[in-house]
Design a protein that fits this description.
Its EC number is 3.6.1.66. By secondary structure, the chain is of the alpha/beta class. It is built from 5 helices and 7 strands, in the order βαβαβαββββαα. The chain has a single domain, classed as Alpha-Beta Complex (Maf protein).
Length: 197
């Protein structure tokens, strides 16, 4: 069965394709099918992922898989949340990982509580109007370090410290990260639900 992936991220395509193949599903990135980017107007990961999946399915007539993910920091009321990729732009700064990290550290200066979590929500729809989408969430708990560490990963990874592992996400071997991350947790749950469907 062909499934449209509502993303242009090549890393996600590789990771997801390998895991979906045993279920008899072949993932096709939405760009190959001329699907425009979907608007993401919502305040929750679930709503944005569902909107992206329905949008991709509407444009292709195929089942679709979408994800929405980001960082939620306790002391900031869950921010940057769904705006994680463009957090610095909310303060008139450039859109970049470096700017986002600078802004995050600045916002946390006055806070002792540095608990945070990476959240990933995956949504699979069989059709545009699927009344029962398969939704899976993964949450990876950690805290925001005061200093960057590690060269792997991207985004907030150099500052996302996992006490249980004694390292930041950027210090982890990519294979280790891909087996314990928020996206890995969500994917395991989604695959279990699809296998049972």
């Amino acid at each position: 069965m062909d499934v449209v992936l509502a993303s242009g991220n090549k890393g996600k395509l590789r990771e997801f394709s390998a895991l979906f193949a045993p279920l008899g599903m072949r993932l096709i990135p939405q760009q190959q099918l001329n699907v425009p980017e979907a608007p993401e107007p919502f305040h929750t990961f679930v709503e944005n992922a569902l909107a992206k999946a329905r949008h991709a399915s509407q444009h292709t007539g195929l089942p679709a898989l979408a994800d929405d993910s980001g960082l939620a920091v306790d002391a900031l009321g869950g921010a940057p949340g769904v705006l994680s990729a463009r957090y610095a732009t909310l303060f008139g700064e450039e859109k970049s990982d470096a700017a986002n990290n600078r802004r995050l550290l600045l916002q946390l200066q006055q806070h002792e509580n540095r608990r945070a979590a990476y959240i990933a929500v995956l949504v699979f729809v069989r059709s545009e109007n699927d009344p029962c989408p398969v939704i899976a969430q993964g949450t990876w708990h950690g805290e925001i370090a005061r200093q960057a560490a590690g060269d792997n990963g991207f985004g907030y990874d150099p500052y996302f410290y996992i006490p249980a592992l004694g390292q930041t996400a950027a210090q982890l071997d990519p294979q280790v990260k891909n087996s314990v991350s928020h996206r890995a947790m969500a994917l395991k749950r989604l695959l279990a639900d699809l296998g049972a469907a």
